[in-house]
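Hey, can you fold this one?
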Amino acid sequence: MKKTNNTLVCTYRKVKHQYNKYMKHLEPKFGKANVATIKKDDIQKLRQSLLSQEKSESTINGVTQLLSTIINYSIKQKELKLINPCVGISKLSTNNERERYLTTSEVKELLSHINDFRELLFVKLALSTGGRLQTILHIKKKDINLVRGSVLLQDLKNNSTYTGFLNDNVTAMLATHIKDLRADDYILSGRTTRLSDNAMARTIRPTLNRLFNKGLKKDDRKNRVVIHTFRHTFASHLAKPMIFQ
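Sure. Predicted structure:
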């Protein structure tokens, strides 16, 4: 019986993960589209948009596969005489994994070049917790525990939560910043609606490019510094003292 329950839980999580993937990546673009009007070019534009948001190749392949499955289902159910526009679109290579992380001196250099408070808070939270872009953007005032110096984080990729711990510097920043916020306000937007991924990326990306990416090709994923590099940096420095004060 326990095995059955575990199987059901795993199935539920997979279904919910696919639903979340659809709502996040496909519904805004194709939610109201007629299947017959979807072209290969539309799918390629979606993939380019996801790449520009620094989504991983595996994530983009998963989104493309989900769209293909939905279209196949629609074709079968409605007996449409169509060829799935996803057919012939190759998967993106997932062999070129990111390896870049920031050294202690690079972190200090980055922080010294950030003048915007919100951008600085985001970077410090990402470096302190290893949270993904969306995870940091989803933090609300009620998720912060100033006494413990901790924050409740959402792992949206796996539909779970976990606790991150903050150093005194970040805790002090938050203590002042969230003082006048309501419990359900997102700390980076200061209101009940969160910042979009693109809004935050557009703010930080120019600084990263200026400091670390000069002369690198855009498809050089191993060496380019991007927002996800903060997650790699967190993992790389886990065994070391906190890398900023």
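Residues 2-30 form the longest helix (29 residues). Let me know if you want another pass with a different chain boundary.
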